[in-house]
Amino acid sequence: MTIDSLIALDQELLTWFNGSESLFLDNFVVLLTTGITWIPLYVALFVLVMKNNEAMSQIMLVVGCAALCILFADGVADGLVKPLVGRPRPCNDPLLKYAVDIAGNYRVSGFSFFSAHAANTMSIAVFFTLLVRNRTFTAAMLLWSLLNGWTRLYLGLHYPGDVLCGFLWGAVSGCLAYLLFYKVYLRISPKLNYISTQYTRTGYSKNDIDMVIAVMVLTVAMLMILSLYTMHLF
Prior knowledge:
The chain is an all-alpha fold and 234 residues long.
């Protein structure tokens, strides 16, 4: 398969995900993809780390490695790959921008390949799933990342290939950050294996994990309510 055929396939696949006839969904997706929307989730993750690590050195190690996830994912995407590849976003491509459905005239400048949004969310999702080791939490975090990747396709800000490569690099970034965390953690903390129905095997309280998932669900519910309210204003 040639590069041209891959690009054509990418453009065709975009039509499956891009836009809809629903004003509610348009409003909902714009809210979902906005970074400030997920501040409650980031705060909940920080509280989870604070409550389940005894020493400040352990807490700072987790926070530092989580920050490295973003540095790896976003730094490579925005700082290196996008300028080198120079692929226009679908919403700005002269050949496609009038065919792409743009929700609420939501356009973003910059290049398309690969999606830093997908890379950032997947890196955080993978890092915390390796850290916490809980199936429900893993499913919720991965679903959160996939949902964020889908919003970029819906809004015409990226092609499916951009999002897929972003997910792949994000997963690698999350794994690298966790490997660094694990090596340093063994030096500053004893290796413990929790055997309890109330804790994961890495020592994270299941009640605190439920709190994070609840924040995620409530955030989505509030966005749906706000989207309905905004729809009725127009």
